[in-house]
Amino acid sequence: MAELVPFTVPVAGDKTLLVWELSSGPTAEALQHSLFTVFSQFGLLYSVRVFPKAAVAGPGFYGIIKFYSARDAHRAQKACDQKQLFQTSPVKVRLGTRHKAVQHNTLALNSSRCQELANYYFGFNGWSKRIIKLQDLSNLEERENEDIVTPLQKQSLKFFCAVEVVLPSHECRSPGVGMAEEPLDKLEEGSLSFLMKRKVTQKLAIQKAMTDAFQKLLIVVLESGKVAVAYRPCEEATDARTEEELQDLIQKFPRKLYFLP
After folding, report:
1. What is the 3-state secondary structure (H, E, C) of the chain?
2. Per-residue pLDDT averaged across 200-204, rounded?
3. Are 228 and 122 in contact (CB under 8 A)?
4. How far apart are CA 198 and CA 186, in angstroms?
5. What Rg, from alpha-carbon coordinates, does the chain have?
6. What confidence tens digit (pLDDT) does each residue in 52-77 have?
7. How far apart are CA 226 and CA 221, in angstroms?
8. Considering only CA atoms, which of 69, 70, 51 is closest in space to residue 61?
9. Does residue 67 contact residue 10 with C-beta atoms inside 8 Å?
């Protein structure tokens, strides 16, 4: 069995755990922290959320935990179901129902989440980013005095960015592009406000480019625990559960599968 982990928001039921019979004593925030502490031992978590039970069901809470990996979620369910964990009474843990016929719309992870996922599987030193181009495409009118910024009407700051996410030890490179635009209709605070907004727009363009680059990478986790990365410039992210599906992927990208030590 092999698993593909894309840089997208996990929505599949087999990556989601439902936890109930949580004690009504602690606050929702305390329970959320306790759940994160326990379940993060099994793999990287996308989210941990705690909700009060319906009024007719009595006091208490239930939790919804999302993993990036279905394999990690399954291990956590088996290990934690009917265990006391952090409270005096046992909790119930179930996997969400997986409907293969239903195709969910995939949402790209934002750049910070992409970096978190890359750090987890590739290591902090296992990847890097390189800004290839950061271009100002703003439609600002020329001003005689560059030091004075007057209110601008129907103008905007716009930046284009091209980056490359690099796995240097494996000669894997994934390009990405992004564009960000911020209106300047109400620029009334002088040059400092202008410079700050310019910096924010640049940063947003870089973040969008990084997200785009990560969408072309697919983490391949083999049953042995070995990790590989596949480059797929035009393919949508999908989950693979069998060795046959993995082989199909390798055949599509025979020169773009890089195994990590």
Report:
1. CEEEEECECCCCHHHEEEEEEECCCCCHHHHHHHHHHHHCCCCCEEEEEEEECCHHHCCCEEEEEEECCHHHHHHHHHHHCCCCCCCCCCCEEEECCCCCCCCCCCCECCHHHHHHHHHHHHCCCCCEEEEEEEEECCCCCCCCCCCCCCCCCCCEEEEEEEEEEEEHHHCEEEEEEEEEEEECCCCCCCHHHHHHHHHHHHHHHHHHHHHHHHCCEEEEEECCCCEEEEECCCCCCCCCCCHHHHHHHHHHCCCCEEECC
2. 94
3. no
4. 14
5. 23
6. 987 656 678 999 999 999 999 999 99
7. 6
8. 51
9. yes
Summarize pLDDT for 148-171 with one digit per residue, the tens.
454 545 678 899 999 999 988 767
Each residue of 97-151: pLDDT tens digit? 755 545 556 899 999 999 999 999 999 999 999 999 888 888 665 444 445 454 5
In this prediction the pTM is: 0.79
Tell me the pLDDT tens digit for each residue of 224-244.
888 888 888 764 433 433 445
Distance CA 31, CA 48 (A): 10
